[in-house]
């Protein structure tokens, strides 16, 4: 069982790239066709000319057919691929990865430009007026103002800390001891028996005396005396933006003298059309009344 998947493109090169992408995915190239505006309006006379008619009638509802037909008339390209039902999802995913257009969004854009979504009314009007021999398109463009925000660098502050050494000179008083040995001449006789009584006079002894001195001891203590704080604040303010946007306006000269109308019509034009219609009705009734009186005079009634 086969299924037809479609994708719409703005140019032929994108459509051909999508066709090549499907071919690499085991889709038969003969089952992938690219349709352009040359196929629209030539539905009879040969396989190529009848291709669009057969695809539109077999695979598309009337509404989709009119939309694709409008896109082809505007210069687009329609890719139609007949794939197996099991490979349809894969083919659709591959086409989504190409440069195909969002067709629903494109239809909304056409409707905003005045397209009615169906070609039947236009075909009926063309049939009443005759075949179109020349056609020109004037795009009506309107600019929209969009205001965004971006962040820029206006300035700032940078603080670098470093260490500097400063020499310090201080005076400190230090105490120092010195031991000296002196010999003094003493001539003092001992009393009789004193040597026996004082045994310390004749004994061995050792006497020591230690010298002490003070020396400078350096100690440094760090203390935080001050701190530097970097702080950033933010505030919001309103700013007025003055800009100019442009749009296209057209005046249509219908060839009836100096009358000019907007391309979209106007209330005053409808009033004038209504007044002319009422004048034509009154003139017609007067003519019918005169004709009726003339027939009475001639006795033909």
UniProtKB/TrEMBL annotation:
- Region Disordered, as annotated, extends over 110-133, 233-301
Domain DUF2382, by residue range, is 138-252
**What PANTHER family does its record include?**
STRESS RESPONSE PROTEIN YSNF
Source organism per entry reads Allosphingosinicella deserti
Q: Name one Pfam family in it.
A: DUF2382
Q: Compositional bias of type Basic and acidic residues: which residue ranges?
A: 233-262, 270-301
The domain of life is Bacteria
Protein name (record): DUF2382 domain-containing protein
